[in-house]
Amino acid sequence: MYTKRELILLAGTEETRLTLHQQLKDILGEFIFITSYASETSLPNLLTNKLIVYSSHLIDSEVRHVVDDSCEVIVSRRTTNYQYIEQLFQLKEGSKVLYVNDFPETSEEAIHTLLKTGIDHIEYIPYHPGTTVTQEHLGIKTAITPGEVHLVPDHIDNVINIGVRLIDITTIMDILEHFHLKEQLGGDISDRYTRKIIELSQNISDMHKQTVQLNEHLKQVVDGVNDGIVAMDTNGKISVFNQMMEQYTGVFATHAINKNIKQILKNDQVYSFLFKEKDRSRFLTINHYNLMVYRFHLEQEGTTILIFKNADETISIEKAARHDLVHKGYIAKYTFDHIIGNSKMIENTKKVARKLAKTELPVLIQGESGTGKELYANSIHNVSSRKYQPFLAMNFSALPEELIESELFGYEEGAFTGAQKGGKKGLFEQADGGTIFLDEIGDVSLKLQARLLRVIQEMEIRRIGGNKNIPIDVRIIAATNKNLMSLIHEGQFREDLYHRLKVLCLQLPPLRERVNDIPPLIEHFIKEQAHEPVSISQEVMDSLIRNKWYGNVRELKNTISYMLAVREKEKITLEDLPNAAPPNEYIYQQPFPSSVEEDWVDAKRNETLLHSIYQINKRGERASRQKLVRESTDQGLAMTEQQIRTQLHKLQSKGYISIGRGRTGTNLTPKAVNYLENNV
To answer: Its domain of life (predicted)?
Structure first.
């Protein structure tokens, strides 16, 4: 056991005193008794015949008055605190940092020590109280300080506290020499320092291994991407060059790394895009590869990333995705090419629709039944920015309200009896990113109108039985054959929903206002449906052109289907017209004119029944409902007995028929006979 000796440590700050006291105690505490003081807190009375260790020569003026001439003074030489060095290695090479300390001398001394230690991959700018702040200082965002965090300027974002600088090994040896312990303890103390250095080296080695492993993992990830990836600095020096880029350029990554990109991609278009143009993407051809190049800049790292996508493969992927949507039925089947007609009116309507398609705003399509509202909705989607995304449709007149709600919004598991396990996505969720077509929007109930309004306003839905809102991104196209303003006045349609839907509006012209489109439509339907060449007589064509077509294109198509089914020759003649008997050219003239389009179906049924009763009575037979069912079917407008009963009551109320009991049956009134005889 060695005899205890005494050492007095004098420091400037309390933090420095505590750190250096602990260091000396860890190394020498077993052999030397250590006492310490800080000038900023308190100093002892006059010290005599002691070994005094200064933390720095800068404190001499502060403590000299308590140190007698009989004392021996050792001024510490200081070195970087090795426990915090690893933080400095994480800084990017060449980056500028402020070194913040309390005095100019300590800042310069510490910087010198760091450089001498080999931590020279960064540029140190000294900073201390009283330093004039320049533009250079303001541009630096990282500061290093040995415990003087309170002195760091406010504009600094990243502060690295490397702790108080430690006493170096030479000062420790001077202390041992003073107590004549160097020969006995020098080797042991040196070994302790060596172990600390080995521990530091081991930590740095472990960090290096982790970095190498991470870089190797990142390289595998980057090489596994199906796109070419290049990273370069502001001067064009390449730091990342993956395997797909090797394929596109024919240059190995080992040759490309650390080279300037101009040496690797010797292409004027590439050079212009990278260094002259402001666009973030461009189509380029490199070694016969058609590539779409995307560029983005990492400001803080000073790095530009380039992604090279194979345009041909991208097109194939989009085709595959579109095929998958087709398979699921989530796709718009029609384009503007499916809308037949060359009249000025139809061309202008298509032109307007194409313009509306380029926006993301809701569209309300208005038009009579059979004018092609669904075709236009499909076509708008197919020329919009969402054309590769889902297209789903809901017809509000086809399903009951309860089913419509679950179809639109989906439901959670257990929301109601029969709900499938796991719940179900609604059409809004399934259409996310694409378009949803709300057909016959005028038939939706007021309850559902309220839910639809919220969806359009908030772009989020809540499933039936759910408790969370689900954000969606859909474009809404709605369609109706009804006068929504009239429904608003009647209290059947919400005015706020109407204005949300009608941000953009497309009015479809009825067929009777574009008669020039009838011949090409007829030609198209015949070609589409006939299995062999079929022509049409001019008399039939003239008759079809003169017709009013209250059912529009749909009615025209049905009429062509009927004539193709009943014809006996290769040419369609007047005899093939519905309800026709030579020389009759009548097709569907409306004996009950109506300004409201939705009354047209009633008018057509009424007319069919009048002609059926007329023909049955003419044969001397009783017009029973069963016979009227068969007769209406033969005339191409099939009706059930219930529908016929309803229509007969309407005809009776209008004074066109009288309904007798028993064998009397249904008979025409003089009013009806007069009308039919004048039109037959």
So the answer is: Bacteria
